[in-house]
Amino acid sequence: MQVSSNTNQYQTLQSQQKPVTLPAPVEPQYSNKEIYEASQGNIIRGKDGQLSLTPQGERNINNAKEDAANKVAQEDQAQKDSARATATNFLAASSQKSQVEIYLAVATEGKVSQDNSTADVISSLRDVQKQNNAVAAYAQYQEAQKNGDPALY
């Protein structure tokens, strides 16, 4: 077996290669005027070289925040109004149903509703109406006594 004294191609390539160093990326230097125009007057470069907001930029950001908050508030109010309208429509329909039940119960002197809650309300309303009629009659009687009208005794 014979061993070659020559190095193989891989070893030759490794010995000839040098590490590649890339130059550091150079950030383009823009003038203050270019930065101001590109940002539509919202940003400028300060004396220390850092970018900062202009007063107009701060106003624009605050206006954008207020617009976004107003939009969210309007959407929230629209949802609340929609829920309120739905609830109002439901109550209006329920009220009309209850008015019909009360009218029928009074007209028929009976219980119209399937559940007894409406009938209980109607009977309590009748009791209140009887009491009011009695109070009105007593007030009329007292008035007649003061005026001395014997026809109402």
Quick structural summary:
The chain has 153 residues and is mostly helical. It is built from four helices and two strands, in the order H-H-E-E-H-H.
Distance between the termini: 151 Å
Record field, number of beta strands: 2
Which regions are unreliable across 5 or more consecutive residues at pLDDT < 50?
none
> Could you say which structural class the secondary elements and strand pairing correspond to?
mainly alpha
Order of strands in the sheet with most strands: 1-2
Helix and strand sequence: HHEEHH
Profile the largest sheet: 2 strands, antiparallel
Radius of gyration (Å): 46 Å
Write up what this structure looks like.
With 153 residues, the protein is mainly α. It is 66% helix and 4% strand. It has four helices and two strands. The chain has a two-stranded antiparallel ribbon with strand order 1-2. Strand 1 and strand 2 form a beta hairpin. The termini are far apart. The mean pLDDT is 78.
